[in-house]
């Protein structure tokens, strides 16, 4: 496993990160989830990303239980705040940030998180209030660094331009071979300001694993067939996309890679990226994904990938 610097922070993170959205705390059994966490540490995956809203706190609670026996300096822990936790609790107001960070720390059973992220931008709260509260969280020692997820370039620039506030060190956008929007402005703006990318859904909800075929129904054990997880996959299941993904298979075979490893290696080619977050419903999936760490694709491979996909790219 290779490790990368997280923005302007002093954190070194595994370039494959373990995600907990849709899986931990309900999407899969706790027994399997424990095996996945154990496998992550075995593979050198020490960067774990979660959020207060994932299964309404259950993902954080599960991590608090399963990580309790491990040394706190053996992993880098990130969580997020914004989405509703109840009818009254949501957003990035000063009061909510203070309330939710304490609740997250309680569920996670830790004194601090390494990275506390705004899960989205809150248009109902002045940015100055949000940034002041985040700075206070850092000064109180409850978070070492701060980040954001899915902010627009204008929102990112506004935060960068505020004087006297804690600086962001990470951005968490959706990014994959099939979803490339952040390349247009976000990557360059962030790189110029000490902000690394931690990308989510680098396998396009599993579509880039090759498990879905244009001519067949989704496999019974796939995310697309899951009642809890299937809603997130639909936009990547068009015939054009699935046929494009199938055209990637001989490229991967020629490089001695699986489709998943090819897709992750493509994401990891981006120098401003610190980590790609992968979810897993089985330990063997995580083992396969970890095999992408350290793979470097040459210009010929990158050109072949683009030619194979053609117009099979989804935009926000």
Q: Can you describe what's shown?
A:
The chain has ten helices and ten strands. It is α/β, with parallel strands linked by helices. The chain has one domain (3-204, 269-297): TIM Barrel (Alpha-Beta Barrel). Helix 3 runs parallel beside helix 4. The longest helix has 16 residues, at 239-254. The protein starts with a strand and ends in a 7-residue tail after the last helix.
CATH superfamily: NADP-dependent oxidoreductase domain
One letter per element, helices H and strands E, the order comes to EEEHEHEHEHEHEHEHHEHH
Most strands sheet? 8 strands, parallel, barrel
Number of helices: 10
Overall body shape: globular
Number of domains: 1
The amount of helix comes to 25-40%
CATH architectural label: Alpha-Beta Barrel
CATH level 1 name? Alpha Beta
CATH topology description: TIM Barrel
Strand tally is 10
Spatial arrangement of strands, main beta sheet: 3-4-5-6-7-8-9-10
Low-pLDDT windows of residues = none
* Oligomer type: single chain
* End-to-end distance: 32 Å
Question: In what range is the share of β-strand residues?
Answer: 5-15%
Using the CA coordinates, give the radius of gyration: 19 Å
Q: What would you call the structural class? A: alpha/beta
Tell me, rounded to a whole number, the average pLDDT: 93
